[in-house]
């Protein structure tokens, strides 16, 4: 019993220490963004680094996001129409309700979960490899802050590209769902593609969620990469932890933001 209590206490201390380190990485990232406006920082920053990260996060994820969300939209619409056909047979509200859910939740959340697997793993693997080969120590000896050099450009790129990919992926998801409903269940396209039920608050929630997810993924992945130890095994651990941690952060943020929106709107979303 004492051994079990001791083990639980040690785990709790380790998790608390990791949470504190994660918070310091986040604060350091925000401070690094502020420092990025200084002239000295601009001289030390690699030229074109932000553009390279925008390409890595956005362009290289575009096909993955489009294909994945397109098929998810088809499956969700097909299953929704199938269940409605068994109950009421009225498909007039399928497109409107699907779009509301897509804009306020499914679009940003599914996009972020996909990015957590591809971008999060890539960030952790790259930074973890630099950590175990002592390149990060070399950056510190050169007077360069690793967070400013490694995490800040990826943070800014994820903020921008998560929102853009949410719009693109959500559009593909909506179009694919409409075509599935039309050709599988005979739903009129004009009825399905009715955007009259989308309100400004739905768009605001989409932006808030996309930006929140875009901020969480690089910080969690960078934190995992900075904690890599040993050799290739440590890099593998960092990559796995980054995917799990980033996905978990997206789910938790989704719940917090949705619950906050329900509270602020009195349950009318």
Summarize the structure.
Helix content is 85%, strand content 0%. It has 269 residues and is mainly α. The longest helix is centred in the middle third of the chain and has 40 residues.
Question: What does this molecule look like?
Answer:
With 269 residues, this protein is an all-alpha fold. The protein has one domain. Helices cover 85% and strands 0% of the residues. Helix 4 (94-132) runs parallel beside helix 8 (200-226). The chain is elongated and about 65 Å long. The model has no long low-confidence stretch (mean pLDDT 86).
Number of domains: 1
List the secondary-structure elements in sequence, H or E.
HHHHHHHHH
For the report, how would you describe the main beta sheet? none
Mean pLDDT across every amino acid position: 86
State the end-to-end distance: 49 Å
Indicate the structural class.
mainly alpha
**Extended strand count:** 0
Helix content: over 70%
Coarse morphology: elongated
> Helical stretch count?
9
Uncertain stretches:
none
Q: For this entry, what is the oligomeric state of its chains?
A: single chain
Percent of residues in β-strands: under 5%
Rounded Rg: 22 Å
Which short descriptors sum up this protein?
mainly alpha; single chain; 269 residues
């Amino acid at each position: 019993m004492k051994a079990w209590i001791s083990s639980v206490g040690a785990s709790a201390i380790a998790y608390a220490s990791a949470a504190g380190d994660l918070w310091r990485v986040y604060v350091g990232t925000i401070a690094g963004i502020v420092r990025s406006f200084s002239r000295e920082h601009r001289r030390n920053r690699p030229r074109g680094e932000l553009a390279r990260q925008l390409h890595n996060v956005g362009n290289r994820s575009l096909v993955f996001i489009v294909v994945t969300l397109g098929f998810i939209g088809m499956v969700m619409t097909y299953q929704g129409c199938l269940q409605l056909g068994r109950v009421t047979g009225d498909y007039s509200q399928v497109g409107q309700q699907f779009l509301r859910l897509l804009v306020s939740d499914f679009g940003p959340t599914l996009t972020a979960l996909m990015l957590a697997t591809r971008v999060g793993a890539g960030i952790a693997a790259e930074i973890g490899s630099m950590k175990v080969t002592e390149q990060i120590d070399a950056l510190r000896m050169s007077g360069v802050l690793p967070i400013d050099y490694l995490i800040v450009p990826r943070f800014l790129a994820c903020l921008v590209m998560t929102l853009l990919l949410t719009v693109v992926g959500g559009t593909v998801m909506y179009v694919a769902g409409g075509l599935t409903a039309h050709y599988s269940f005979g739903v009129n396209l004009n009825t399905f593609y009715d955007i009259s039920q989308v309100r400004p608050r739905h768009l605001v929630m989409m932006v808030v969620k996309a930006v929140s997810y875009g901020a969480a993924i690089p910080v969690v992945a960078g934190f995992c990469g900075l904690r890599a130890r040993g050799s290739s095994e440590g890099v593998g651990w960092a990559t796995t932890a980054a995917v799990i941690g980033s996905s978990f952060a997206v789910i938790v943020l989704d719940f917090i933001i949705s619950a906050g929106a329900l509270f602020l709107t009195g349950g009318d979303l």
